[in-house]
From TrEMBL:
One Pfam entry name: CBS
UniProt protein name: CBS domain-containing protein
Species of origin: Capsella rubella
Domain CBS: 53-119, 291-349, 373-432
Keyword tags: CBS domain, Repeat
Record keyword Repeat present: yes
Keyword Calcium: no
Domain of life (superkingdom): Eukaryota
SUPFAM superfamilies the UniProt entry points to: CBS-domain pair
C-alpha cells in the first residue's frame, strides 16, 4: 500500500511539473490562437509513418543481458544516446509490453557508474577478511556521505556480494591500503577501473539490472497510425527524449523518433509560410529563454567532473554550461554523453574523482575520433531569431543552445530541444485520453 502511494505521489509530481512547464510556455509564446490551431491541425494530419527513418533504416536494440560496458560501446560506436532494451525472456512476443523492458541511455548509466564506483572504492579499501562484513555499512556510507541515495544500490544487487568479490585475494590489504575508501580508490589507479568494469560482480552487471533501478523515463511507443502532434507533445510537454514507433502485430520497433530528429525536421520546413513566420520572430517574442539566468543549472570550470554528473542527475537534465568568473562567462559545455569517456578510457576513469571539469574537457578534446568529438558550448544572443537557434540545434546536432549576453558571453539562459518543439504545439483538451486511449497518469506509470 505504501509503495503504491509513493508511486502515485511521484506520478502526480511529474504530471504537475509537466503541466507547469507547458502552461508557462503557452502563456509566454503569444502565438495568435488561429495560428496555433492551424499548426496543431497540420501536425495532427501528419502520420508518424511518414517521418524519416533512423539512419541506416534499422533501430539499434540492446538485449537485456548485455553487460553495461558493452552497452556503452554499442551506444558510442552507433553514435546514439539511447536504445530500446529487448527482454530476452520474451524476445518473440508480439506485445511490446512483454518484448521491451525500457530504454537504456547515458543518464541511466551515469547513475550506475557513480554508485558502483563509490561501492568499489569501499570494497577496495577493505581487507579480504573483513570485506564480506562491510555490506550494508558500505551502502549506508554510500548513501549518506557520497551520493545522497540509498535504495538503488541494494536493488541493483551490488551490496555485500560486490564488496566481498571485489577484494578477492585481499588486493587492498596486500598493498597496505587503509580503510579509507576514497584514498584506496585514488591509489589503486587503473586497478580501480578494472574492478568497476572487468571484475565480478561489476563485470556481469547487465542492462537489465540497472534498468530496474535507474530508469530515467517511461518507455512509451506510438503506433505507425498515430500523428506527429502526439509525438511532439510527448517530446515537449511530457519530457520524453525519444518515442519508439511500433506496428500492431509486428515485433520490431519500426522507427525511433528523438527530439533532435523532430527539430531537424522543423529545420527542413524552411520556405513554408507558417515556419518562416514563426522562425523569423526574435526569441524574446516567444518568451525564450523560458528560464531566468538564476534558474539555469551550471558548473564552474574548476569544480570536479564528478559534481557535474551528479548535478545533472539530481536535476534530471542532460547538460550543463561550464562557466567562469563572477559574471558567469560561458566557456564550455558538459553533457550526459560525455560519460562514455570515463567508461572507454581507463586512464581517465581511474582519476575521475580528482578531475576538474576543465581538465576533463581537455582530456576528451584530445581523445581522438575513436571516442567521438567533444561538443563545445553553442551560443546565441538575446536578440537572435528562433530560426537561427533551430539552425544551430539541427546543424550542430546539439541538445541545447546557451543564450549569452554582454561582451564576455555571460550566461543569460538556455534553449533546449524541448523548448523549441513546445513553441510549435499546444495540447487540445483531453487529447491523450481521446487519441491514445489512456490518461497521462497511466502513461507515466507504464
Amino acid at each position: 500500500m505504501a509503495e503504491n502511494e509513493e508511486v502515485d505521489k511521484k506520478i502526480r509530481s511529474t504530471v504537475s511539473s509537466c503541466e507547469a512547464y507547458f502552461d508557462k510556455v503557452q502563456s509566454r509564446k503569444n502565438l495568435p490562437k488561429s495560428l496555433q490551431e492551424t499548426l496543431n491541425s497540420a501536425f495532427a494530419g501528419i502520420p508518424v509513418s511518414s517521418f524519416p527513418q533512423v539512419p541506416g533504416g534499422r533501430v539499434i536494440e540492446i538485449p537485456a543481458e548485455t553487460p553495461v560496458s558493452e552497452a556503452v560501446k554499442i551506444l558510442s560506436d552507433s553514435k546514439i544516446l539511447s536504445a530500446p532494451v529487448i527482454n530476452t525472456d520474451h524476445e518473440s512476443s508480439l506485445d511490446w509490453r512483454d518484448r521491451y523492458l525500457g530504454i537504456i541511455d547515458y543518464s541511466s548509466i551515469i547513475l550506475w557508474v557513480l554508485e558502483s564506483a563509490e561501492l568499489a572504492a569501499i570494497a577496495l579499501s577493505a581487507t579480504s577478511a573483513t570485506a564480506a562484513g562491510v555490506g550494508a555499512g558500505a551502502v549506508g556510507a554510500l548513501g549518506v556521505a557520497a551520493l545522497g541515495v540509498t535504495g538503488p544500490v541494494a536493488a541493483a544487487g551490488l551490496a555485500a556480494a560486490a564488496v566481498g568479490a571485489a577484494v578477492a585475494g585481499g588486493v587492498a590489504a596486500d598493498r597496505g591500503m587503509g580503510k579509507d575508501a576514497p584514498t584506496a580508490a585514488d591509489k589503486l589507479g587503473k586497478d580501480f577501473y578494472e574492478v568497476i568494469l572487468q571484475e565480478e560482480p561489476f563485470k556481469s552487471t547487465t542492462v537489465r539490472t540497472i534498468l530496474k533501478s535507474f530508469r530515467w523515463a517511461p518507455f512509451l511507443p506510438v503506433s505507425t497510425e498515430s500523428s506527429m502532434l502526439s509525438v511532439m507533445l510527448l517530446l515537449s510537454k511530457y519530457r520524453l527524449r525519444n518515442v519508439p514507433v511500433i506496428k500492431a502485430g509486428e515485433p520490431d520497433i519500426k522507427n525511433y523518433i528523438t527530439q533532435s530528429a523532430v527539430v531537424q525536421g522543423l529545420e527542413g520546413c524552411k520556405g513554408r509560410d507558417w515556419f518562416d513566420h514563426i522562425s523569423a520572430l526574435p526569441i524574446a517574442d516567444l518568451g525564450l529563454p523560458f528560464m531566468s539566468p538564476s534558474e539555469v543549472i551550471s558548473i564552474e570550470s574548476e569544480e570536479l567532473i564528478l559534481e557535474a554528473f551528479k548535478r545533472m542527475r539530481d536535476n534530471n537534465i542532460g547538460g550543463l554550461p561550464v562557466i567562469e568568473g563572477p559574471n558567469k562567462k560561458i566557456v564550455g559545455n558538459i553533457s550526459m554523453r560525455d560519460i562514455r569517456y570515463l567508461l572507454l578510457q581507463p586512464e581517465v576513469f581511474s582519476n575521475f574523482r580528482h578531475l576538474t571539469v576543465k581538465s576533463f574537457a581537455t582530456k576528451i578534446a584530445t581523445a581522438g575520433e575513436e571516442y567521438g568529438l567533444a561538443i563545445p558550448a553553442i551560443t546565441c544572443r538575446p536578440d537572435s531569431t528562433l530560426g537561427s537557434v533551430i539552425n544551430s540545434l539541427a546543424s550542430r546536432s546539439v541538445h541545447r543552445v546557451y543564450v549569452a549576453a554582454g561582451e564576455e558571453n555571460e550566461l543569460y539562459g538556455v534553449i533546449t530541444l524541448r523548448d523549441v518543439i513546445s513553441c510549435f504545439v499546444s495540447e487540445p483538451p483531453n487529447y491523450f485520453e481521446n487519441c491514445l486511449g489512456f490518461s497521462v497518469k497511466e502513461m507515466l506509470n507504464r
